[in-house]
Fold this sequence. Notes:
The chain is 32% helix and 3% strand. It is mostly helical.
Amino acid sequence: xxxxxxxxxxxxxxxxxxxxxxxxxxxxxxxxxxxxxxxxxxxxxxxxxxxxxxxxxxxxxxxxxxxxxxxxxxxxxxxxxxxxxxxxxxxxxxxxxxxxxxxxxxxxxxxxxxxxxxxxxxxxxxxxxxxxxxxxxxxxxxxxxxxxxxxxxxxxxxxxxxxxxxxxxxxxxxxxxxxxxxxxxxxxxxxx
Length: 192
């Protein structure tokens, strides 16, 4: 009948009996969404901003001078040496994450050495929920959480980069931007 309540089942060849066999195909879609620290809890990353590499997406180094400079800006061209382990916000790869998790899972002479290694790698767990999901790649599967990154992590730098692009292309000047900031009527106790 054209108004059948159930669609016809797909059929596949049966190599044992010959002929066709009806099959039922089930599709399961799994998605997850978490804030920054929640995603870090599901993954191998530290649930804290105290790690030297607190970003799960890149090698942003929280103790290096370059973390406050926009890439490509005059300030970022400094000849000052970077902090040990700084990689100038180069994106992390899945292979690096797997290697770092294996490193954390290894044996250490002292707990202090393990803690320092975890802080240096930005990975705090050798095993996590996400590493046990088939086909999961935590580096690319986790969505960004702008609410927690804003003013705590790399999002503030994206704003600086955007402003640098707008100012260098002539949309407005630093003086105009600062004049607008001074004109804001902020509540008592807020900084400009």
